[in-house]
Design a protein that fits this description.
The protein is α+β, with helices and mostly antiparallel strands. Strands 1, 2, 3, 4, 5, 6, 7, 8, 9, 10 and 11 form an eleven-stranded mixed sheet that branches. The protein is about 55% helix and about 15% strand. It has two domains: about 190 residues, no CATH class; about 140 residues, no CATH class. One of its GO terms (cellular component) is plasma membrane. It is a multi-pass membrane protein. Belongs to the ABC-4 integral membrane protein family.
Length: about 425
């Protein structure tokens, strides 16, 4: 065992000395590997960062959460012209499902309405996102309040003029969040009493944040927009109880809504039951494809880098033919010569990989500093991938030159080198 360790150590020293003695050649050789590793890790880091940010934006919602609406989150076999004729889900359907669907932890009705301007005294905030929801949305979204409370079921059903402010909205209108409770703000030309303020959460990658949102009872907006307004995109949001049969629950949900709409067995469902788990699976599929395509493109760079290392190793073998002959005549075995050149190729590739990783790290720091709400991530897993790929490229590129060097006849090698 000690003999092999000594061989590895001496081979490593030979490789390092060879690289030091030919610095320009070393630089040109590792440039291809550096570009290849940089391309692969940059793609992986960018896709991982995107995936993390997207899933982080959905982290407040349980993956089992179901959204019923006339639109589908993913591709559908139903023709577009037919989907465009689907009716919106109604408040009556929400009430029916609330009474008839067992094993439901929370269910709420929601409207997606346009942004508005909210004001208090002489101050106003434009472009405020309106969350028109029911009382149980608080449990579905797992909202966190800094002060006050969320509106209850009675207030939601009656459409009471109460409102929950995002942290940023409260600070812009009142200077500080705790001063908001009990004050009346103006929205839709009406006065709403502030009963709660959300905790500050920061913006997501899409620029959206509950900090710049307000929440009010959905029946308030129903009275303003009406139930037949196609611009409101109504939806029913359902959170099933934990540890239930998900497929069975969705089947019951679909059957009950079909019964309410009076659909015949041979008719397609005129609504879509979208589950966030399916959406996250869709994201995983997209990111997987992006990673795959990025690695294929980067693979061409690595291929060029690998050929560069192989070429330079053949040159190195030719230049040191005389030295190889002397080493063999003094008793050096074939495996020592083999390991010597393999180590040189691997070390060359690994150094190129390290430079590529360093460049990616610098770019992630710079990019993160310019994008306040989006952080680029260089994970340990990606670093391990980069170093492993570098070593494998060096091993593959150096194997043939190393074998040719180890098989040289010592007498012919000395004679050739003279």
């Amino acid at each position: 065992m000690l003999i092999y360790l000594r061989i590895i150590k001496e081979s490593f020293n030979f490789a390092i000395n060879a690289l030091k003695n030919n610095r320009l050649r070393t630089f040109l050789s590792l440039l291809g590997v550096t570009i290849g590793i940089f391309s692969i890790i940059a793609v992986l880091a960018a896709v991982d960062s995107l995936e993390k940010e997207v899933k982080g934006s959905l982290s407040t919602l349980d993956s089992s959460t179901i959204i019923i609406m006339r639109f589908s989150f993913g591709p559908s076999e139903i023709p577009q012209w037919k989907r465009e004729q689907f009716p919106d889900v109604s408040y009556a359907e929400y009430q029916y499902l609330k009474k008839n669907i067992p094993q439901t932890e929370a269910i709420t009705y929601s409207l997606n309405v346009s942004r508005e301007t909210i004001s208090f005294g002489g101050k106003q905030v434009e472009g405020v996102e309106i969350g028109a929801v029911g009382s149980e949305y608080y449990d579905i979204e797992a909202l966190k309040l800094e002060d006050g409370r969320f509106f209850n079921e009675a207030e939601a059903n009656s459409g009471s003029p109460v409102i929950i402010l995002g942290n940023e909205i409260a600070e812009n209108l009142f200077g500080q969040a705790i001063a908001s409770i009990g004050n009346k703000v103006r929205l839709y030309g009406r006065k709403f009493t502030v009963i709660g303020v959300l905790e500050k959460e920061g913006a997501s990658m899409f620029g959206q944040s509950k900090d710049a949102s307000v929440f009010l009872p959905v029946n308030v907006t129903r009275r303003i927009y009406g139930d037949n307004n196609k611009s409101t995109f109504p939806q029913i949001i359902v959170k099933p109880e934990k540890d239930i049969d998900n497929a069975e629950y969705i089947a019951i949900l679909e059957q009950q809504l079909r019964i309410f709409r009076g659909l015949k067995p041979n008719e397609v469902s005129t609504f879509f039951i979208n589950q966030l788990q399916g959406f996250t699976d869709f994201i995983d599929n997209i990111t997987g494809q992006l990673n795959f395509m990025g690695m294929i493109i980067s693979g061409f760079s690595l291929l060029v880098g690998g050929f560069g290392i192989a070429n330079i190793m053949f040159v190195s073998v030719k230049e040191r033919t005389n030295l190889i002959g002397i080493q063999k005549s003094l008793g050096a075995k074939n495996k020592f010569i083999l390991l010597q050149f393999l180590f040189e190729a691997v070390v060359l590739a690994v150094i190129g990989g390290l430079v590529g990783l360093f460049l990616v790290w610098i770019i992630t720091l710079v990019a993160s500093s310019f994008t306040e709400d989006f952080n680029f991530v260089l994970s340990t897993f990606n670093i391990i991938i980069g170093m492993s790929v570098s070593a494998i490229i060096g091993l593959i590129s150096g194997i043939i030159p190393a074998i040719s060097a180890s098989r040289l006849d010592p007498v012919e090698a000395i004679r050739t080198g003279m």
